[in-house]
Amino acid sequence: MNISGVSAATNYAAAVRGDKTSGTEKTAKSGMSDGFIERIKAYAKEDAKKGVYMSEGFTQMRLAHMKQYVSPDRSGPKNQVMSAIQAALKEPHPMLQALEKMLEKLSGGCSANLKISSVQQAAEIFAPNGENIASYNSLGGGWTDIQTKAEHDFFSESASVYLQAYREARAEMQSSQPAPSVATSVNIRA
Q1: How far apart, in whole angstroms, are the C-alpha atoms of residue 93 and residue 5?
Q2: In the prediction, which pLDDT does 26 show?
Q3: DSSP-assigned letters across all residues of 95-159
Q4: CA 74, chain centre distance (Å)
């Protein structure tokens, strides 16, 4: 029985409605601008001076850049999925023991598969290209972001640029140091 006069379908629709499109199909190439490559090289050179490979500062800078230019928007679809799960749990439904729901038209053009019961809720969010970008399990610790191919490619490309710049900086440092003198005295008194 629906006391509020609003059906479960209306609650789901209201929970997942989103007009925001955030371009979930970003590429690794879009994140590897000339300016960003120069920042990677600067970090590699500074890290080489410190004798640290991929410092915390570099790692944080790279993650922040990836989230801005490469990663899909996960927060909007996650919020919409959680709203849909909460709406389903509030709605008395005889099939709630095994309710499966497909949500489309989430923010950024994403979609989601939901599996909801009174004991466990699970969801998977998909980018417009069909790539799984996040999953949720109420019994397994909540949300898990799933690395996209673009994010993987971005990590690979940025690590390669960093490694090359780091090696060059270390080689430059070693070549600029004076060669240690080799003492060639031998004491034959025995």
Answers
A1: 14
A2: 75
A3: TGGGEEEEE-S-GGG-EEEEEE-SS-EEEEEE-TTS-EEEEEETTTTEEEE---HHHHHHHHHHH
A4: 9
